[in-house]
Each structure stands twice: as C-alpha cells, then as structure tokens.
Specification:
binds pyridoxal-5'-phosphate, single chain, 8-stranded parallel sheet, alpha/beta, 8 helices, globular, TIM Barrel
Length: about 230
C-alpha cells in the first residue's frame, strides 16, 4: 500500500463531514471525491480499497491515462465513478463520455460544444455549472448574475443534464468570504432548479475548507491533500 494511513484518514474525514452536516442543519447526503491528480493509478486503487468509490481528476489526459493503465492491468474497478473537476478546452469535449460527472462547465461556448459532441455520440452528459462568486480573475465560472439567463438557455440543450453547481473558494479566504462563496453557489443551484434543471448537487469544499462547505450545504467534497498528503 503506497498510501499508509489512508483508511484512517478517510474515516476521520467522514466523521468530520458528518459533524459538519449536523452543525449546518441542511441534512444533506455528502459524497467524498478522492482527488487523485498528480498521483499514479495506484492512488485510484488505494482510494477504492479505502471505500471511496468517487475519484476526481482535473486534467482530462491524465485521467484517461490512468483509466487506460488500470484497464490494461485488469485492475480497473467497475464501481468507480470518475469525476472531471478541472477546466476543459473546447477541443476535448468528446472525452466527457469517459466521466460520470463533469464539474467545470464554466462558459457558454463549452456548453454548446459539449452538447454538440454528445448529440453526435448519442449520449447525454451529467454536468455541473461552475460559478465564480467573487469574480476571481484566475478562475473560470459564471458570475452569479449570469446564471439565470444561462439556465434558461441550457434548457434548450437536452444533451446536457445540469445536475447542480460547482465552485472553488479563493485560497486562504477567511471564513466570512468562504461562507459568501458557498452560499452563492447554493443560490445558483436554486436558480437552476427554478429553470427546471435536475440540480441536486453542490460540489464545493477542498482540503482547507470542506467543513465550512458542508455546513453551507455541499453534497460533493473534492479532497486531495487531506487524503494523500501534499502533492509534489
Ligand atoms: C486539486 C483540486 C482539488 C483538491 O484540492 P486539495 O486542496 O488537495 O484537497 C479540488 N478541486 C479541484 C478543482 C482541484 O483542482
């Protein structure tokens, strides 16, 4: 086992998540996504063996390489849901068919291209709308003020099932900013629902801020460092 202590860390994190659900009072179910980026395929297996059936990757090529390596070795677990959590170039939308959920639908043109590709492949895609609540220039995502109009527009792209909202808080933000960001994502989800989308998910919370995210209603937390240690 390349990740000693992983089983214990998963248990610890799950305990903290349960406590945060109680404190927050939203009563939501929460899934833990083990973010295996920069680690080898063995991290995916280790996560699976530790009971994490959701894994997250932020780069499409890296994720496909790991899927391929595990398949070739005959060790690709059937029960793993692969999440693509990072920015995607429009010329790579075809690869979305290899993921259970895409978290970073962050601009209209990407939505259009993904829908067109899905239509060609005769599939539907489960996606989350990424929102950029405080307008960080370094991050993608819709401004909250643009979500309602985009939600109306996306109703006309039936190849995309809008399952919820994803957001990332600024690094080292204080608690007040974190809560503003996470509550903003929750409001965006309500906007999607009001437009008729099946938006249940709130993907928010990373190693440094997941407990506050869960208090604010997160249903998917994306955790790398706290499970696998610092990335080199
Ligand atoms: C890397 C990454 C994470 C996990 O970050 P940690 O701080 O290591 O938990 C979560 N979400 C996204 C989009 C990421 O790229």
């Amino acid at each position: 086992m390349r990740f000693p202590g992983l089983v214990e860390r998963v248990a610890e994190v799950r305990g903290r998540i349960a406590e945060a659900v109680r404190r927050g009072g939203h009563g939501q179910p929460v899934r833990l996504i083990a973010v295996t980026k920069t680690h080898g395929p063995e991290a995916v297996l280790a996560a699976f063996e530790a009971g994490c059936t959701d894994v997250g990757e932020n780069k499409v090529q890296e994720a496909l390489r790991k899927q391929e390596a595990l398949a070739v070795a005959g060790t690709l677990p059937d029960g793993v849901a692969w999440h693509l959590i990072g920015h995607l170039q429009t010329n790579k939308v075809k690869a979305l068919s290899h993921f259970a959920l895409f978290h970073a639908m962050d601009r209209p043109r990407l939505a259009d291209e993904a829908a067109a590709s899905a239509a060609k492949q005769e599939i539907t895609l489960d996606v989350l709308l990424q929102v950029n609540v405080v307008g960080e220039a370094s991050k993608g995502g819709y401004a909250l003020g643009d979500v309602a109009a985009e939600a109306e527009r996306l109703v006309r792209l039936p190849q995309l099932r809008l399952r919820g909202v994803m957001t990332m808080a600024p690094l080292d933000a204080d608690e007040r900013v974190l809560r503003t960001v996470f509550a903003g994502a929750r409001a965006a989800r309500a906007t999607l629902r009001a437009a008729g989308h099946p938006a249940e998910a709130l993907s928010m919370g990373m190693s440094g801020d997941y407990e506050i995210a869960v208090e604010e209603g997160a249903t998917l937390v994306r955790l790398g460092t706290v499970l696998f240690g610092a990335r080199s």
